[in-house]
Amino acid sequence: MLIDSNAYVGHWPFRQFEYNTPEALSERMKEFGTDVSIVSNLNGIFYKNTQHANEELFEWINSKRVYKDRFIPFAVINPVYGGWRDDLNTCISRYGCKGVRLYPQYHRYDITNPFCVELVKLCRDKGLPVVFCLRMVDNRTSSWLDIEKEWSLKDIMPVIKAVPDAKYMVVNVANSTVLNEEDTALFKKTDILMDTSGRNITDWGDLFKRFGAGKFCFGTQSPILDYCTGLLRIESLRESEADEQAKELLRAGNVKGMLGI
Amino acid sequence: MLKINRRKFVANTVSSGAGLVLGSRLMGLTHKEEIFSDAGEKKRNLMQEVLKYRKIDTHAHVDEGSYRPEVNLDFADRLGIEKLMISDFIRPHTEGTPDDFRARNNFVIKCIKERPDRFIGTVVLNPKYGKASLEEIDRCRDAGMIGLGELYNQVKINDPLYYPIIEKCIDINWNIMMHSAIGYSRVALNLHEPENISLPEDFADVARRYPEAMFQFAHIGGGIDWENACKILKDVPNVFVETSGSNNEANMIDFAMKYIGEDRLVFGCDYSFYQGVGQIFSAKLTDIQRKKIFFENISKRLKKGGKDVD
């Protein structure tokens, strides 16, 4: 089985995407053998009221029966915007969201903002993972209207310290994964997955040694990044680096475990 | 460009470069079985597909620090890259003296002597030192190197200082590969850029001045605004556009195909091996187009210069 832990539909205001509709994503999945995609709506990054994006996603997924089987929706919640607690409840109970994506940089709040911490605790209590993306796009070639700062792994640590018993996903690991000794120990203990789309997922030998194969899962960052590279990182592992059982965990097992599916 | 940060690799996954055999045997990947998804659909065997294409990485680096030859070969082996065009580029914000570029070329010569089956050496130089640069071309050619690259930021590609070097490369049919810049992607010049970066407009300018010269515009995935670059280089037939870089944005290859075309695109990694290969398989390309991009386009140029990779 193959589960893409990091896909989007929706619009990016600074560049045209080709595979950003449910139909186009579904075609990519068929082409590369992806059984299921965790999907969220890019519009939620740019709408002030993110709930409109969650409503859109719900409507898109329900527009065809096959989408309900192939897409797992994750909500976009902005915890510094009014009504977010109601939005979260609606996303879980009505829209079937199995996780929450947060965009502190785009929504302009600190990762340890009390409302962010409260949201993460609520997700923890409901068993939902919280997703942070280290960068949406490469800042070198991004639009002059886009944010410039990219995160590295250490930028996620403050919220993990605040809520160490929550579930986390860190996607598009494009920058440094270096953590100090204390943070490394905490990171290892935390229920957390990193997807394979990011450019820093290169040195598997070192990453497995530092974090263990149980900390990674297949992801594409589609439609922003090419669909194949995240999968190639897994499929090109040698038997001595990851046997078939370990590869299955990377392809689907680890993310299934996190979502309880 | 943030060259160092994106090239960290530790050797504990490295196998010996010796005795390597190309093709699917590289990884013990001889899967012939058909794989089906949970939904019962036939799944493509990605590695079988990846390994079936002959590949020349037209943008690779070696040195004794971040870009060790054995690490290059380890990546190349797992992804079926048959040959790598290697250089030890003059670092940005350095003077690039003759002593510096000779030492860098010497290391490349050592590498190609050790692995002539895998490495193709390309020459770095600095046109500020015109006489020494021209002599370096002769010296390196005698040692078996072919082509220039990766030329860096010491002098703009369309600066008159480059003219005698380009004219010499025309005489000997050498490919000229130069770094491309992040440049003005965000309107203002990127703060990390040296003064003399070459912009797509500079490549177009010099290529029109020397239509018989063979240029290679490096890494459209290297941080430049690739849509802007491809549009500027659309009508400059003697510029190859190379696909390497860490920024494997979806649609980049498809867009480049539309503007540059299958006969002018060449595959490269610039140490971003997974992205370099992955994006070619993500793009909507025919088998013939992949063969051209991975191997045939650059092999034709190399043959003009006297290197028959077949």
Description of the structure:
The complex is a heterodimer of chains A (261) and B (310). Chain A is an alpha/beta fold and 261 residues long. In chain A, 40% of the residues lie in helices and 15% in strands. Chain A has helices spanning 22-32, 43-46, 51-61, 65-70, 84-93, 104-107, 114-126, 157-162, 181-189, 204-211, 229-235, 244-259, and strands at residues 3-9, 36-41, 71-76, 99-102, 129-133, 167-171, 191-195, 216-217. By secondary structure, chain B is of the alpha/beta class. Chain B has one domain (31-304): TIM Barrel (Alpha-Beta Barrel). Helices cover 35% and strands 12% of the residues of chain B. Chain B is built from 10 helices and 10 strands. In chain B, the strands form 3 sheets. A 5-stranded parallel beta sheet of chain B has the order 6-7-8-9-10, sandwiched between helices. In chain B, helix 7 links the parallel strand 8 (214-217) and strand 9. In chain B, helix 3 packs parallel to helix 4. The longest helix of chain B has 18 residues, at 287-304. At the A-B interface, helix 1, helix 10 and helix 11 of A face helix 1, helix 8 and helix 9 of B.
Could you give the distance between the termini of chain B? 34 Å
Helix content of chain A: 40-55%
Please count the helical segments of chain A: 12
* Order of secondary-structure elements of chain A: EHEHHHEHEHHEHEHEHEHH
> In the CATH hierarchy, what is the architecture of chain A at level 2?
Alpha-Beta Barrel
* Largest sheet, strands/sense/barrel of chain B: 5 strands, parallel
Shape of chain A: globular
* Oligomerization category of the chains in this entry: heterodimer
Largest interface, Cβ cutoff 8 Å: A-B, 47 and 53 residues
Structural class per helix/strand content of chain A? alpha/beta
Give the name of the CATH architecture of chain B: Alpha-Beta Barrel
- Supply the number of structural domains of chain A: 1
What is the name of the CATH superfamily of chain A? Answer: Metal-dependent hydrolases
Order of helices and strands of chain B: EEHEHEHEHEHEHEHEHEHH
The backbone outline of chain B, from C-alpha atoms, is globular
Provide the CATH topology of chain A: TIM Barrel
- Indicate the CATH class of chain A: Alpha Beta
Q: Supply the CATH class of chain B.
A: Alpha Beta
Radius of gyration of chain B: 19 Å
- Assign a percent range to the helix content of chain B: 25-40%
